[in-house]
Specification:
The complex is a heterodimer of chains A (163) and B (557). With 163 residues, chain A is of the alpha/beta class. Chain A is built from six helices and eight strands; from the N terminus they run E-E-E-E-H-H-E-E-H-E-H-E-H-H. Chain B has four domains: 105 residues, Sulfite Reductase Hemoprotein, domain 2; 156 residues, Sulfite Reductase Hemoprotein, domain 1 (2-Layer Sandwich), CATH 3.30.413.10; 93 residues, Sulfite Reductase Hemoprotein, domain 2, CATH 3.90.480; 133 residues, Sulfite Reductase Hemoprotein, domain 1 (2-Layer Sandwich), CATH 3.30.413.10. Classes of the chains: A alpha/beta (163), B alpha+beta (557).
């Protein structure tokens, strides 16, 4: 899957390792929450880049003590209508001050990109035919925002108040 | 009333462009119907039985004459000459073409209107007491906070893909005309012991197949914290509301399953986190700035009544009847609040033609009314009318066929579009409402019966609020035949309650007789001054049920 980060296509540094499959000797790995929890110590001891992939019903709260050891968190959209990850991402950024990558994976739409960006996602696994110009277009559709969020964009209220 | 500044104006313009692009992609096949559906719904566009239906937001039910004229124009040019006012105080058009909807959005943007989040699983149009700013005994006008909530909830990045739709209403008087306890969040403006004004916050009310009266979650939330508190509720809901079953996905299910104490505890945890973060604080100056837009007109110092008014009451029985049912006391001397009934006998409840909308705008311009309100009872309201102008205003309303003297009476029926328009419906509702109106058309009888709220829905989704009707009617389908169940004892007011189902449904040719027998039972049993609702609460279901089924040979089930 092509990966967009900071508005451009980038090399994906993680390889998803399905349940039961052994880790490669080196390189970054993406694992499920269950696998991360069961092999936590050895994964961390190995010092390799790690991305934990959470299903939509997995509250990232369970990772809060391990966040310094986790390079990226992938939040899954089983279907684009399932909006839980919007809250999970925001919670990771605001409550736990998580600085690593937050990646959107699964079924999400062009029309959600701007919202995803606002709540703290910074990486997006997109379809093969996705054009990068579309990404910039999505970001530019709405000039102003009404509510504060992770992106710290000035809200309309702040602009009105001259802040 | 509120006026857009450059920021609000740009938002609705860009929203029209954004939707235009979505429509283009749908027409080109780049979006599947499954993907397009939630996107069009977030813009209030439904695909119904015969056509698309477009729902236009009327925030907290307030419109200017200019906006009313534009709604008339859209009705004329895009929707066969009429529109429908809904129980969410919105306007619905039933016949727009998909390719034309972006143009309609541009026309709405021209008059500071939009369709943003009028459907979809997000925070919907915020509603308020339709007598706001005019009625006596109000702590403050609830609409400024509604406008602040409108802005905060519009394009909210975290809460646009909730488990299900989310509706907020605000009331600021002891009498609740906004049905706050039937909303996902209901807010009541209150004063605490220290004399500060804030909000009592209810969560988890709702109708549909599992009706609930809301739980009190926030006993007193200060004004500066209210957005943070709302955000906390929405977050708990977004994280833990059910997504596996659409019928159990509303916040009412989560709140009532957890119970008030546990739900409150979870909200308090989020609330503390959001407050610690500090960005969602509502500065008092900002609230003041918005409040200034809603400052009432400068009321003249008038005597309590006017000779023109008194003379017309004596001379014109029709006017006299109208003043009895359609006027509400105003907080300013010499003024009245006038309800314009959209329940003229023989008309579809809530419908207005382009000519009527233009005519109303003309009345507003001629009499200097800055605004008109849409009520959740599908009527319109002139909030500030000088009593001396009432005879002339009434004459103009009559000329538009909008002079029905039945506000709050038995023929002021709330009714969803039903099977005539809606593909969710199981039964027709409009024809039954019209037959009931005909049966009780005698004005003297209506006034003699007093306040009786009939509310009817064509399916269990309850758009016609049947659970909250003094007499609720629910259309059901049994093997392709329409039947109508009666419920009694519901209320959407400050004494909110869910109506009790009487029993098996009545056929479409029996329901009107059955309702009449219920009403006659009330007349026989009522104590002096008692409304039907109170008589029912005192004597219970049995006498009504016995009467309703007396001649009932073919009860369905």
């Amino acid at each position: 899957m092509p990966l967009i980060k900071n508005g451009a296509f980038v090399e994906d540094r993680f390889v998803f390792i399905p349940e039961g499959q052994a880790f490669p000797d080196d390189g970054g790995v993406m694992v499920s929450l269950a696998r991360f929890q069961s092999e936590r110590d050895s994964i961390i001891a190995h010092h390799r880049p790690v991305c934990v992939r959470l299903a939509a019903n997995e509250n990232p709260d369970v990772l809060k003590d391990d966040l310094p050891n986790i390079d990226a968190i992938a939040l899954e959209f089983p279907i684009f209508r399932d909006g839980r990850a919007f809250s999970w991402a925001r919670m990771l950024r605001e409550r736990f001050a998580y600085q690593g990558e937050i990646r959107a994976v699964g079924h999400f739409l062009y029309d959600q990109l701007a919202f995803l960006m606002r709540v703290g996602f910074d990486a997006f696994e997109v379809r093969q035919d996705f054009r990068i110009a579309e990404f910039s277009r999505a970001m530019a559709e709405m000039t102003y925002v009404y509510q504060p969020s992770v992106d710290r964009r000035k809200t309309v209220m702040q602009i009105r108040r001259g802040e | 009333m509120y006026r857009y500044d450059e920021f609000d104006a740009k938002m609705v313009r860009e929203r029209a462009q954004q939707f235009r692009y979505q429509v283009e992609r749908r027409i080109k096949g780049e979006l599947t119907e499954d993907e397009f559906k939630p996107l069009r719904l977030k813009n209030g566009l439904y695909l119904q039985l015969h056509s698309y239906m477009l729902r236009v937001a009327v925030p907290y039910g307030t419109l200017s004459a200019r906006q009313m004229r534009q709604l008339a124009r859209i009705a004329r040019d895009y929707s066969r000459g009429y529109g429908h006012f809904t129980t969410r105080t919105n306007m619905q058009y039933h016949w727009p073409k998909l390719s034309e909807v972006p143009d309609i959005l541009e026309l709405l943007a021209d008059v500071e209107m939009h369709c943003i989040q009028t459907s979809g699983n997000c925070v919907r149009n915020v509603t308020a007491d339709h007598f706001a700013g005019a009625v006596a005994g109000e702590l403050e006008d609830p609409r400024p906070i509604c406008e602040i909530i409108r802005q905060w909830s519009s394009f909210h990045p975290e809460f646009n893909y909730l488990p299900r739709k989310f509706k907020i209403a605000v009331s600021a008087t002891k009498e609740d005309r906004a049905a706050v306890k039937y909303h996902d969040i209901g807010m009541e403006v209150i004063t605490n012991e220290a004399g500060e004004t804030g909000y009592r916050v209810f969560v988890g009310g709702g109708m549909g197949r599992t009706p609930y009266v809301a739980l009190e979650i926030g006993k007193f939330v200060g004004k500066e914290d209210i957005l943070a508190y709302l955000e906390a509720i929405l977050r708990v809901y977004n994280e833990y509301g059910r997504r596996d079953n659409i019928h159990k996905a509303r916040v009412k299910i989560l709140a009532h399953q957890l119970g008030a104490d546990e739900f409150r505890r979870q909200v308090e945890v989020e609330f503390a986190e959001i407050k610690r973060h500090g960005t969602l604080h509502l500065p008092p100056e900002e609230l003041k700035r918005i409040e200034a837009y809603f400052a009432p007109p400068a009321f003249e110092d008038l005597p309590e009544t006017a000779p023109e008014f008194e003379a017309a009451v004596k001379a014109d029985a029709g006017f006299a009847a109208w003043t009895r049912s359609n006027l509400t006391p105003h907080k300013a001397k010499g003024y009245a609040i006038a309800t314009i009934s959209l329940k003229t006998i023989g008309q579809t409840p809530g419908d207005a033609s382009a000519e009527q909308m233009d005519g109303l705008a003309q009345i507003m311009e001629d009499f200097g009314f800055a605004e008109i309100r849409v009520s959740h009872e599908q009527n319109l309201v002139f909030p500030h009318v000088r009593k001396k102008d009432l005879p002339a205003v009434y004459a103009r309303l009559q000329a538009l066929d909008l002079g029905a003297a039945n506000a709050g009476l038995i023929t002021d029926i709330i009714c969803c579009p039903g099977l005539d328009y809606c593909d969710l419906a199981n039964a027709r509702s409009i024809p039954v409402a019209m037959k009931l109106q005909e049966r009780f058309a005698d004005l003297e009888r209506q006034h003699e019966l007093g306040e009786i709220k009939i509310k009817m829905s064509g399916c269990i989704n309850a758009c016609g609020h049947h659970h909250a009707g003094h007499i609720g009617i629910l259309g059901v389908d049994k093997k392709g035949v329409e039947f109508y169940q009666i419920q009694l004892g519901g209320s959407g007011a400050e004494d909110a309650s869910v109506g009790e189902i009487m029993g098996p449904g009545f056929g479409k040719d029996e329901i009107v007789d059955a309702v009449e027998r219920v009403v006659e039972t009330y007349v026989a049993l009522r104590a002096p001054g008692e409304r039907l609702l109170e008589t029912y609460r005192r004597v219970g279901m049995t006498p009504f049920k016995n009467a309703a089924y007396q001649e009932q040979m073919y009860a369905a089930y």
